[in-house]
Structures are given as structure tokens and as C-alpha cells.
Amino acid sequence: MNGKRIAVLCSGGDSPGMNCAIRAVVRIGIGSGFEVYGIQKGYAGLLEGNIRELQVSSVGNILQHGGTILQTSRCPEFMTEEGRKEAANLLKRKKIDALIVIGGDGSFNGAMKLHEEHQISVVGIPGTIDNDIDGTDYTIGFDTAVQNAVDAVDKIRDTANSHARTFIVEVMGRRSPAIALKVGIGTGAENVILPTSSIDYEKIVNDIDRGIKRGKTSSIIIAAEGEVEGVAHTIQKNLKDKFNLQAHVCILGHIQRGGNPTPTDRYIASQMGQMAIKALLADEKATATVFVNGKVALAPLKNCLRKKNEFDVSDLELLTTLSI
Fold first, then answer.
1. CATH second-level architecture of 5-141+261-304?
2. Could you tell me whether strands 219-224 and 191-193 are parallel, antiparallel, or unpaired per DSSP bridges?
3. Environment class of residue 295 by beta-carbon count within 10 Å: exposed (0-12), middle (13-18) or buried (19+)?
4. Which residues of the chain carry a pLDDT beneath 50?
5. Is 97 a catalytic residue?
6. Contact yes or no for 279/271 (Cβ under 8 A)
7. 185 within 8 A of 150, measured Cβ to Cβ
8. Residue 106 — φ and ψ, nearest 5°?
9. Beta-strand runs (E) in the chain
10. Distance between CA atoms of 316 and 196, rounded to whole angstroms?
11. The pTM is what?
């Protein structure tokens, strides 16, 4: 596939590094002989025909910015057969031969169905701060999200030390434990509560008491947000009601998604953008860029359609060992 039109969009939640991937797709795509089009606001923008041609200059000075210049959205209409048929017809009318989708598992599933039902060539680039896509060890935005959270917890620790307080810091991760675990290790948290695990309140209290006895002046509990809203406040209430332990809550929320992407995210996102163009040049029909064994590679898109919620047990062992 060479000398044809391709399009790129972002779908689902934004993640730092998406702009780096867009930049690589546009510049390497144009350099490889493609006409490259940007679709504004994801699948919703595709259904609205919100498409514009991108030039090399269109992606100048975006490498260092978070978010996505193409914007993003969630689009229930695209998850219907009628919606995908309309999208495919629009792409064909615009003579766009392939679609690069930067997003998570939901975005990938939509792209896969578009290919299966309408033979549109698609490439997925994994972009989500949760690092929870099957088939890849890394997703764009994870490192930046962890860095943002670590910076915030370091500041909270200053206050916690000054007032000899316990803080419960809620980080993102409805089903994925990745952010909570890495932030917990990186900030010296006394406890980390994962989204799929039960909460052992006695252990939390005993760990805090043990730290106080050896002279610690603060305690940090990292809690993944989980699928039920208000987990940090629930933990706070139970610690107070059952153990008379006072704790303060800080919910980091969407601050984790924003800000300048780290060098790691910039580098991997750029590599994935390059690899997406290589996939199209090789006439791949339904593939994804993945990060496996320390390198960016290509894999069948069908291998990347599910969430990955397991974690390395050694990370939990490390956390437990360090927080004695």
C-alpha cells in the first residue's frame, strides 16, 4: 500500500503521548508517500465527516503537549452495525484506504469490527494511562500518569510529615492495578489497595501502628479508584469507625492524564507511529503496534481486544518488603 490516503483518530480517554504518535504518523506517512488525514473527535467526528488533510506543519510543536490535537470522544453510535456502516461509507467516499486508531481496548474493538464488516484496513496504537491492553507490555501515557501521581504524592507527603497525618490518595484504575502499584512503590507508600482485591483494614492499621512505634511521622495509603465511586472515602470512614484512625483523603483524578508527556512516552509513541506506517506499507489489514520485550513491534489486532488486569506478583512482594 503506497501513495494512498490514510486517516488517524484518537478515541476514548486521552493520554499523554497521543500527540507524539500523531506527529510520527503524519510526518512518516507523508514521507512514505501517503496523504494523511486527521479525524477530529474520534469515531464521533468520523460519523460527522469532521476530517481534514494534515501537512507536516500541522503537527509542528506538539511533541511536548499532553492531550491530543485531534481531540477525542466516546461514541456509542459507532458500536452499532449501522454506525460502522455509515463510517465505512464515509471513508470510502473520501477515498481513505486505511484508518489508524489511537486508543484503548474499546477503540480497538470498534476498529476490528470496522475491518471485519467492511474490509477497511486498520492499525491500532495503544494509548491509555491504565496500561491495561492485552498483547502489549506498555501503552502510551502510562509513564506520564505515574509521574504525575508520584509528584502529587511527594507533595502530600510533605504535609503528612508536617502534621503527623495519614493520607489516603486515590489514583486512577477502575480495573487496572498498574498505576496504583507503581505509584505505591515509587512513593514509599505504606499500603496499596488494588481495584480487584478485598481490603484488609487490620493490616493497614497494624502497619501504621508499627511505623509510628519506630518513629515514622506520616503514612500514605494508595488506593486505586475501582469501579465503585468513593472508595477512598469508604476506606476513611471504616478506619475511623472501626479503628478510631483518622485519615485524610486526596483524590488525584484527571490531573494524572494531563501535562507534558515524559521522554519515555514521547519515545515509545513516536516509535509506534512509525511502526503503524510500516504496517500499512507492508499491506497489513488489521494489526496493532505493541511493546514487547523492550521493543516496539506489530501484532494481530485480534490479540489486543481485551483488558489486561493482572499484575506482576513480584511488584506486590517488593512493595510489601519495602514498607515494613
1. 3-Layer(aba) Sandwich (3.40)
2. parallel
3. exposed
4. none
5. no
6. no
7. no
8. -65, -40
9. 5-10, 35-39, 51-54, 96-103, 121-126, 166-171, 191-193, 219-224, 248-251, 286-292, 295-300
10. 14
11. 0.94
Cα separation, 205 vs 246, whole angstroms: 11
Number of other residues whose CB lies within 10 A of the CB of residue 294: 7
Q: Which fold has domain 143-257?
A: Rossmann fold (3.40.50)
- The predicted-structure confidence for 269-311, as pLDDT tens digits, reads as follows 999 999 999 999 999 999 999 999 999 999 999 999 999 887 7
Cα separation of 163 and 218, whole Å? 8
Burial 2-26 (b: 16+ CB within 10 A, else e): eeebbbbbbbbbbbbbbbbbbbbbb
Measured CA to CA, the distance from residue 9 to residue 26 in angstroms comes to 11
Beta strands 121-126 and 96-103 are parallel
- Residue in 130, 143, 207, 265 annotated catalytic: 130
Distance between CA atoms of residues 182 and 233, nearest Å: 22
Q: What angle (nearest 5°) sits at the alpha carbon of residue 229, between those of residues 228 and 233?
A: 115
Task: Report domain extents, the chain.
Answer: 5-141+261-304, 143-257
Contacts of 117 (CB under 8 A, 6+ apart): 81, 84, 85, 88
User: What's the pLDDT score for residue 1?
Assistant: 65
What pLDDT shows up at residue 216? 84
Q: Which of 96, 108, 40 is CA-nearest to residue 68?
A: 40
DSSP of 274-314: HHHHHHHHTT-SEEEEEEETTEEEEEEGGGGSSB-----HH
CB 315 within 8 A of CB 181: yes
Q: Which helix (H) or strand (E) holds 22?
A: helix 18-31
